[in-house]
């Protein structure tokens, strides 16, 4: 049996986190056509875990345990994906949780959210894929004069390739390759492709 994805243990909780994903269909194995049009042997959707408040709270508490020592005073997340888990990490740490969102393509604080000079900020996301939105969120905090003490996510999809300049912790690392349809080995093997979420 071909191993279609690999999950590396980044903590003793990685297996239980991924089990939680599998139980709610948030981590599927097969042959999928992603929204991007690319094909993948796996599908990961954090929102399907986070829609269950008890699961979201548990993920937040687990992240909080790992980052408590960083001494963060504020959680900052990028909208939309980071909002729910950011709120739960903030709850577990007993600190404020705010989010940055895009306006005219630029990530920024809106809605009256503020960071004071010297605030110790923890950036929280659901999934880090390339690290790009995490870096942008870090930049938002620094532009406000805050100090970013670390970053955290439920899942690291970067294959360990993210290049953040702050301490970073993920509950689990998942490597899911993607392929253009014309060079997809699963297509070449004749395996039917499905859209994630469709019942098969
Ligand atoms: Zn394919």
Key structural traits:
200 residues, alpha/beta, seven-stranded mixed β-sheet, two-stranded antiparallel sheet, 6 helices, 28% helix, globular, binds zinc ion
Helix/strand layout:
Layout: E1 6-8, H1 14-23, E2 27-33, E3 39-44, H2 47-50, H3 53-67, E4 74-78, H4 83-93, E5 96-103, E6 106-109, E7 120-128, H5 132-143, E8 147-156, E9 168-175, H6 185-188
Parallel strand pairs: 4-5, 4-7, 7-8, 8-9
Antiparallel strand pairs: 1-9, 2-3, 5-6
Helix pairs in contact: 3-4
The site of zinc ion (ZN) has 7 residues, from helix 6.
Explain the overall architecture.
- The protein is of the alpha/beta class and 200 residues long.
- The chain contains 6 helices and 9 strands, in the order E-H-E-E-H-H-E-H-E-E-E-H-E-E-H.
- The chain has helices at 14-23, 47-50, 53-67, 83-93, 132-143, 185-188; strands spanning 6-8, 27-33, 39-44, 74-78, 96-103, 106-109, 120-128, 147-156, 168-175.
- The strands form 2 sheets. A 7-stranded mixed sheet has the order 1-9-8-7-4-5-6, sandwiched between helices.
- Strand 7 (120-128), helix 5 and strand 8 form a beta-alpha-beta unit.
- Helix 3 (53-67) packs across helix 4 (83-93).
- Residues 8-12 have low confidence and may be disordered.
- The site of zinc ion (ZN) has 7 residues, from helix 6.
- Structure classification: alpha/beta
The oligomeric state is single chain
Q: Percentage of helical residues?
A: 25-40%
Task: Estimate the mean pLDDT confidence.
Answer: 90
Q: What about the largest sheet? A: 7 strands, mixed
Give me the number of helical elements: 6
* Relative strand content: 25-35%
Q: How would you describe the shape?
A: globular
Bound molecules: zinc ion
* Gyration radius, rounded: 17 Å
Number of strands: 9
The helix/strand order is EHEEHHEHEEEHEEH
Low-pLDDT sequence parts? 8-12
Distance separating the two termini: 20 Å
Sheet with most strands: strand arrangement: 1-9-8-7-4-5-6
């Amino acid at each position: 049996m071909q191993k279609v994805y690999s999950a590396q243990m980044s903590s003793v909780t990685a297996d239980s986190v991924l089990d939680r994903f599998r139980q709610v269909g948030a981590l599927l194995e097969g042959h999928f056509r992603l929204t991007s049009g690319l094909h993948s042997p796996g599908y990961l959707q954090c929102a399907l875990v986070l829609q269950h408040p008890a699961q979201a709270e548990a993920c937040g508490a687990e992240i909080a345990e790992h980052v408590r020592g960083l001494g963060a005073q504020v959680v900052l997340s990028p909208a939309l994906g980071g909002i729910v888990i950011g709120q739960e990490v903030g709850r577990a740490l007993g600190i404020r949780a705010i989010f940055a969102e895009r306006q005219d393509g630029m990530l920024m604080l809106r809605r009256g959210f503020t960071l004071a000079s010297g605030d110790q900020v923890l950036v929280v996301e659901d999934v880090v894929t390339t690290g790009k939105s995490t870096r942008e969120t870090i930049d938002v905090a620094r532009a406000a004069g805050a100090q970013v003490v670390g970053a955290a996510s439920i899942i690291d999809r970067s294959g360990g390739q993210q290049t953040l300049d702050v301490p970073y912790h993920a509950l689990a690392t998942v490597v899911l390759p993607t392929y253009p349809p014309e060079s997809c080995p699963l297509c070449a093997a004749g395996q039917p492709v499905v859209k994630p979420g469709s019942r098969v």
